[in-house]
Structure formats: structure tokens, C-alpha cells
């Protein structure tokens, strides 16, 4: 069976697994964005706390994916839960680091000027600091998405959802019928999803970045 024939015969299953993979990555990156930005907001004013938060996220990131997924089996079981938790943890480092860098890099004269016209600390954060730091934060989100997209394939190790099932099944059947087709379908599907997600983030960046910063 050729690759195109394989795609045609497994069309519904491949669409379902593609949707699962995209949904899993979207949810984990969204969770990592909320957690990472909150952590960044709490620590960016302190060099020591910023270093601690970034180092902690970095240590988590260095744990091998198969090992982390295996460790999560005991408390969370198999399936979606360990997959989502692991991907969220792996997605934190770029977002936390870029949030700290973005907020710390805001020109202090602008902050002082906002304070001088009577803006509260919360107003300064929401109307001055976060908008100026947003392009840097969004870059971290894009990196996290690409990481989650690739690592998400390994979630099949714990019966996680997504296109990783195609890759793992194909590798387990190397030499058998459709083994290469399965591996190739899963791999190309993840690559295409990564490109689509990145294109969406480029569009989001253009729509949400203040014009003066974008120029």
C-alpha cells in the first residue's frame, strides 16, 4: 500500500488523532502561559527570585521525557492526565524566562512617567509593562508550542492522545506492512500542525502587539 493509499484508508482515524494532538498542545500551552506569566509577575522585580524560578523550570526541562511520563503514571495513571501534566511542565521554561526578561527589560523611565501621572501599580503593570513585554512573552509561547508539539508525540508511551500513536505503532512494526506509512503519517502530521500553530501565533502577534512596538 502506498503512502497516499494509506492516508485515504485511515483518513478518519488520522483526522481524529490530529485533532487530539492539536487540542492537547493547545491546552497545555494555555495552562503553561497562565502559570508562567503569573510566576514571572511574582518574581521579575527580584533577581534572586527570578533566578530561582528560571532555574526550577530549567531543572524540570532537563528531566528526560520518558522518565517524567513514567514517574507520572503512578499518581495519575495512563492516558490524558500524565500527558497534559508533563507537557505543561516542559512548556514552562520558555514562558517563565521570557516573561521575566520582557518585564525586566521595560524602560524604567516609562514606568516612572506613568507613576508620575498618578497611575496605580496595577494600572502600570496592565497598561504599560505587560503590553511592552508582550512580544517577548509571545516568543516564549511560540517556543513552548513547538516543544510541546514534538514532545507530545512521546505521550503515546503512556497511552496519551495524538499522532504519537502512529509513530510508536509504526516503529514497533518496522519491517511489517504499513510501518513506514504509519511513522511518516504521524511525523508529517506533527510537522504540519507545528507550522499551522506558529503561523497562528505570528498573526496573534500582529493583532495584539501595539503598533508603535511593532514598527
How does this structure look, described?
- This protein is mainly alpha-helical.
- 82% of the residues lie in helices and 0% in strands.
- It is built from ten helices and no strands.
- The chain has helices at 3-9, 11-43, 47-62, 65-76, 80-104, 108-116, 121-151, 164-172, 179-208, 211-214.
- The radius of gyration is 20 Å and the shape is elongated.
- The mean pLDDT is 89.
- InterPro entries: ABC_transp_perm/SBD, MetI-like, MetI-like_sf.
- It comes from Actinomadura fibrosa.
- Its main location: membrane.
- This is ABC transporter permease.
Key terms:
mainly alpha, 215 residues, single chain
> Residue share in helices?
over 70%
Given helix and strand content, the structural type is mainly alpha
Rg computed from alpha carbons, rounded to a whole number of angstroms: 20 Å
Distance between the termini: 52 Å
> What are the segments in which pLDDT stays under 50 over at least 5 consecutive residues?
none
Q: What pattern of helices and strands is seen along the backbone?
A: HHHHHHHHHH
Number of beta strands: 0
Average pLDDT rating: 89
Shape: elongated
Largest sheet: none
Alpha plus pi helix count: 10
Strand content: under 5%
Amino acid at each position: 500500500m502506498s503512502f497516499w493509499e494509506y492516508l485515504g484508508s485511515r483518513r478518519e482515524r488520522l483526522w481524529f488523532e490530529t485533532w487530539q494532538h492539536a487540542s492537547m498542545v493547545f491546552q497545555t500551552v494555555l495552562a503553561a502561559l497562565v502559570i508562567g506569566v503569573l510566576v514571572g509577575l511574582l518574581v521579575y522585580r527580584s533577581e534572586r527570585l527570578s533566578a530561582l524560578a528560571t532555574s526550577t523550570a530549567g531543572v524540570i526541562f532537563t528531566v528526560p521525557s520518558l522518565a517524567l511520563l513514567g514517574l507520572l503514571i503512578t499518581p495519575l495513571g495512563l492516558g490524558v492526565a500524565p500527558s497534559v501534566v508533563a507537557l505543561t511542565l516542559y512548556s514552562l521554561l520558555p514562558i517563565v524566562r521570557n516573561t521575566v526578561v520582557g518585564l525586566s527589560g521595560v524602560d524604567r523611565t516609562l514606568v516612572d512617567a506613568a507613576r508620575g501621572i498618578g497611575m496605580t501599580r496595577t494600572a502600570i503593570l496592565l497598561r504599560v509593562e505587560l503590553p511592552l513585554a508582550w512580544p517577548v512573552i509571545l516568543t516564549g509561547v511560540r517556543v513552548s508550542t513547538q516543544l510541546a508539539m514534538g514532545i507530545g508525540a512521546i505521550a503515546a508511551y503512556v497511552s496519551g492522545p495524538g499522532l504519537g500513536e502512529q509513530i510508536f505503532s509504526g516503529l514497533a512494526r518496522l519491517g511489517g506492512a504499513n510501518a513506514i506509512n504509519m511513522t511518516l503519517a504521524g511525523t508529517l502530521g506533527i510537522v504540519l500542525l507545528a507550522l499551522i500553530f506558529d503561523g497562528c501565533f505570528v498573526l496573534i502577534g500582529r493583532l495584539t502587539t501595539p503598533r508603535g512596538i511593532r514598527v
